[in-house]
Design goal:
DNA polymerase, domain 1, single chain, about 60% helix, mainly alpha
Amino acid sequence: MPPVRSHAPWLSSPPSRIERGGWYGTGSDHADPFAVNPIRRSFGLVVASAVMLVGPVAIGGEPGVTAMIAGGWMGMIGLAIGLPVLGLSLLEVGWEQLRRYLDPGIDQLAISRRLINILRRHGYDSIAMVEATPDATLLSLSNMDRRGLQEVRREIARWRYLRWQAAGFP
């Protein structure tokens, strides 16, 4: 008896996975081209689009006009798509840096990954939030033990001391 084929016989190789809406082969998991590295990708799009617009102007004459008519519209579309994505991505990174400066996260502490995951799972993202929480509340978190709590409190005190030293002992 011949082996049973798990995919359509007209396909040369089996598809990588089945998703709603059809079969998709190997490739990106993201439909959005800016989902990964949005700043780098949108900056590349803006630069390429600007070259498509400025290049024909630099050439000048009839060949430049022809190139502008043939490809300038693609440069305009690229700028219309890339500039807002680049601006929003830069604003998002700037906002995140400002938030981390004003309210530092627990990932700045030198504690184990396990403790960071426990605290994040229960909604404790900032050092100030963990510092303001009583020990009894932190001990009631799942998988938090006395040793872990001591490690967190010790590292918060160490982090505060290092910030105090960096500020010049005010």
